[in-house]
Amino acid sequence: MAAAFDDLDRNILSLLQRDASLSLDEIARKVGASKTPVWNRIRKLRASGVIRAEVALLDPEKIGLESCFFVLIRTAQHDADWLARFLRAVQSRPEVTEAHRLAGDIDYILKVQVPNARAYDDFYRALIREVSIFNVTSTLSMEVIKSTTELPLPG
Fold first, then answer.
1. 52-78 pLDDT, tens digit each
2. 40 vs 48: CA distance, rounded Å
3. In this structure, is the dihedral angle defined by the CA atoms of residues 8, 12, 13 and 18, taken in order, positive or negative?
4. CATH of region 7-47
5. Is the pTM of this model over 0.85?
6. Of 34, 38, 65, 111, which has the most beta carbons under 10 Å away?
7. How far apart are CA 111 and CA 68, in angstroms?
8. Where is the HTH asnC-type domain (predicted)?
């Protein structure tokens, strides 16, 4: 169930999505409120799970992960055992930065960050050793047009 937000919540969340390292003083000043109500709102947003985590976002290229592949997977198996093996295989691989189950012709899409095509091939070979896949289509991202972790806030 979606949480209800007022303008203060939205302003705090917008700031934190852009820079979670802001001090409480900075946040309070930017949203035009005193520190205590801002701190209480942030605590409430954390406790309710709206704020899941505060992390450092790394630049993939600067840490040597220059290749991003999107992997489209179709499976002929939809039983619980196959799904459990697939989930274990995907969740255990740090190269997989996102995984989604889809509606439509493609069953799953993975976002895989690796240093190069050779590393992707190693990932692919390891994956198909662990789980049977009917069809895999991989596409290499040539350029990032937009990448954000900021979510649009209902309002």
1. 999 999 999 999 999 999 999 999 998
2. 12
3. positive
4. 1.10.10.10
5. yes
6. 38
7. 7
8. 5-66
